[in-house]
Amino acid sequence: MKQYVISRITMAIELIIVFVLIIFGTGKETFSVSSLSVANNMDYEKNLSASIIKSNQNELYIKGLYSPLYTFTGDLTGYAGDCALCTGYLACPPRTNVLKEGIYYNDKTYGTVRIVASSRNYPCGTIIRFKVSKLSKDPIYAIILDRGVGGNDIDLLTENEDYARKSVGRVRDLEFEVIREGWKK
Fold first, then answer.
1. What's the CA gap between 57 and 63, in Å, rounded?
2. Which residues share a beta bridge with 127?
């Protein structure tokens, strides 16, 4: 009985040593403890750790890039570059002609985003996000490149006035998230 207890205590100590070595690593690919041999693939752990770190960094990057700086509430309306008093040119640089270029803008950081107009409360180049289920099941990312709207209201550039009137209409008390303020990164 005494030998049995001693062998069990020895085995428990060896097991503890193995776990400590696995947790803290030894820098070797394999190691041996007494009669117990454990294979430890350090390269696999390094690759796994690097992939987990990269995944976490990407997640933090996306969260930082797409996290709202602040929110505001306003009405959403639609407009078109071909309206009676419109020239088709946007008020903010690069002052593109939407009649030729279309209703989207290719931002270096956020990719293809919709164009919106706002008041001077929000600087040109500001990226906002909002969700209107009748327009899209996904959130809409837009860049402020035009003026002519009062207060906290946002005017979404559309293909034509008919679409603006019928599809967008007026969405009251919509929450807008400011993702980037102005042209800053």
1. 10
2. 143, 180
Instruction: Please give the domain boundaries of the chain with CATH numbers for all domains.
Output: 2-65 (no CATH), 68-180 (2.40.40.10)
Tens digit of each residue's pLDDT (9 = 90 or more) over 8-54: 787 778 878 877 777 776 554 444 444 444 444 455 454 556 666 66
Mean predicted confidence (pLDDT) in 114-119? 96
Rounded CA-CA distance 129/140 in Å is 6
The residues facing 38 across adjacent strands are: 31
- Scan for tokens 């209409």, then name that residue: 169
Would you state the structure tokens that stand for residue 50, as one six-digit string?
């690097």
Whether residue 69 contacts residue 168, with contact meaning beta carbons closer than 8 Å, is answered with no
Q: Read off the pTM.
A: 0.67
